[in-house]
Amino acid sequence: MTNGIRGKVAIAGIGETTYYKHGQAPDSEFKLALMAILAAAEDAGIDAREIDGFCSYSNDRNEPSRLSAALGIKDLKYSVMQWGGGGGGGAAAVGTAAAAIAAGYADCVVVFRSLAQGQFQRFGAAAPAKTVQGDNAYLFPYGLFSPAQRFAMKTMRFMHDHKIERPALRALSMASYHHAQANPRAVMHGRPLTEEKYDNSRWIVEPFRLFDCCLENDGAAALILVSAERAKDMQHKPTYLLGAAQGSEYRNAAPAHNAPTYASSSFTSVAPRLYENAGIKPGDVDVVQSYENFTGGVLMSLVEHDLVKAEEANEFLKLENLVADGGKLPLNTSGGNLAECYMHGLELQIEAVRQIRGTSTAQVPKVDVSLVCAGPMVTPVSSCVFGSEATL
Amino acid sequence: MSQSYLPEGLPAPIPEGDGLSTPYWEGLKAEKLMVQKCNGCGTHQFGPEWICHKCHSFDISWVEAEGKGTIYSWERAWHPVHPALRAREEPYIVVLVELAGAGNVRMIGNLMGDPHQDVVIGSKVEVVFEHHSDNDPAYTLAHWKVV
Lengths: 392, 147
Ligand SMILES: [Zn+2]
Fold this sequence. Notes:
The complex is a heterodimer. Chain A is α+β, with helices and mostly antiparallel strands.
């Protein structure tokens, strides 16, 4: 049964700042947020003062009240933060924004994310502390600190269960770098990746080499959502939201790595729900943006979204199958978190919209259905599907 | 144990303010591997919680688990994320061990021995306690070695 928002809400505007290497943004994180929101408003052809709702995720530090005061928002009607860390909430924030519009709580909602992590504590660095308690007490004393270290064992077990070899991970990394070479906005534009360069890169934590791991970057991104009816008269061809789903399977957050479905990207129950409520099948998907915190997360996301069979992963996950130009499953066509920018995956939502508009730097021919998987392996995770007018 | 597997200077585990995990950390100091067991339905549970996830009973005991298990997953960490780890020039191995004798709950520890060894999922392991008695606060870790 399809959900109540299918086709009712559209992405009217997308905006990004320049993407910078970690710590190199010349502007404050809050200013970056403002710049991205203004860019999205301009893209939508609206006055930013018309925005009446804000959604974000991963505890974005830039609060809607401050943004509203700074921008002179006339009437703030909706401000909702998606629970959970990492990039797991990216698609959920879009879904929540759409739900607000469909329900009539707000008319023009911006989904945004701003990161200038260098102005705060780095994600990959351990906080210096003499003691640790809670779930981390079972992890930190054994040298299990960073996201890479926390997720490597999920990937290791998944690869063991399905006899997946490391070249499959390499192909996922190569796809992102390949597409970044066509994208002048990408931080890794002009820095192509070869199989040799990948194979010779240092281990971060087995099974992840350096090029299996996301960047840390500075920048901001924003999407503006309005009702489908209103979007029809705006300056871009509307990109409709067909569905969004969030959550995670049974006891995913059981402490100290005790999740029953351990070797998972957390999408085993979310993905089937997404397809059901979006009214599409995996075979309908024309292009995929799948959040790369680590390539192992992409592998499991693609399998759990039934886009690749686990037993066929070694055979299928080759660069030629993942490219925009002629690939069977075009993947991460802007360069994604690995090679465009680690904007906690909001850059993937924007790229998914570009693919529907036909304006990507690695455009897939004839895109009607564009899927995004947000940050895998955390909880809750989320994914969403955008569609062209032909899908309605 | 005279020398710890990882360098000194990593955060010392302590119970939460509400004492939820105190029996586990105190158990390790006495070289006992303690896990929760529900008095209502017999379900084992780890990490600890205030309620049994199966039957919602709050009547939960701590029982000693046998210090034997199998490797459920593993990783070899190379990049020294914490400053204290930079003193170690070798990678280190983290294992996730499943305890068949305690309802298949899992625990994380380091795998003793050569950090470059081949690790095989399904290998049988047994617990090795590592005391940090001189640390303030004192604590004990549970590591594993292949049998
Ligand atoms: Zn019970």
